[in-house]
Design goal:
The chain has 105 residues and is of the alpha+beta class. Strands 1-4 form a two-stranded antiparallel ribbon. A two-stranded antiparallel sheet has the order 2-3. The longest helix has 14 residues, at 70-83. The chain is built from three helices and four strands. Helices cover 32% and strands 17% of the residues.
């Protein structure tokens, strides 16, 4: 059984549609994406004390997509995440497009 202090097993984000997510074990919080799994991103690596950093996300993206060029991977991940923003939420789009304050981490 999962410990309450245990980190999340997976982070599901940047959905392009509403996926069908089901619990396979309610006790352990195990889930499966039954439909539209190709329309979500699932980060399945441990998240450090600092939280999920862009460099961690980019490394995961490059490795799972077998991309060696970091600039190309950065553009591809950014575009994929931008595609998940709802069209009727200009506030979210504005926050997403704000340039980073501390450079690219």
């Amino acid at each position: 059984m999962a410990d309450r202090n245990e980190a999340a097993a997976s982070l599901i984000f940047a959905t392009l549609g509403k996926p069908d997510i089901r619990f396979t074990s309610a006790l352990d919080n195990d889930i499966e994406i039954a439909e539209r799994a190709d329309e979500v991103l699932v980060y399945d690596r441990p998240i450090g004390k600092e939280g999920l950093l862009w460099r961690d996300l980019l490394s995961w993206w490059q490795e799972t997509r077998k991309m060696t060029d970091q600039e190309q991977a950065t553009r591809a991940l950014y575009s994929r995440m931008e595609a998940s923003l709802p069209p009727n939420s200009p506030g979210q789009k504005n926050l997403f497009e704000v340039p980073p304050l501390f450079g690219s981490c």
